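Minutes, project check-in
Item: structure for the 70-residue chain
Input as provided by the requester:
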Amino acid sequence: MDEKWVVVRYPRTHAEASIIKGLLESKGIPVLVQQEAIGKVYGMTMNGLGQIKILVPAENKNEAEQILPE
């Protein structure tokens, strides 16, 4: 990744991450979904362990923040 990516949301579930990803991509914003391996293996998050992150290019951060609900 040559461009800088920034976190815009920390969804609690994969379903929530998929909805956010689809919403942003439908508006033309590239999206990366990252999760620590432990979360993928055990299918859960706890105290930040296995946390899911939604990232967008830094140049799209403001636009993504405006699209996403609080």
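Outcome recorded: The mean pLDDT is 85.
No further action items on this chain.
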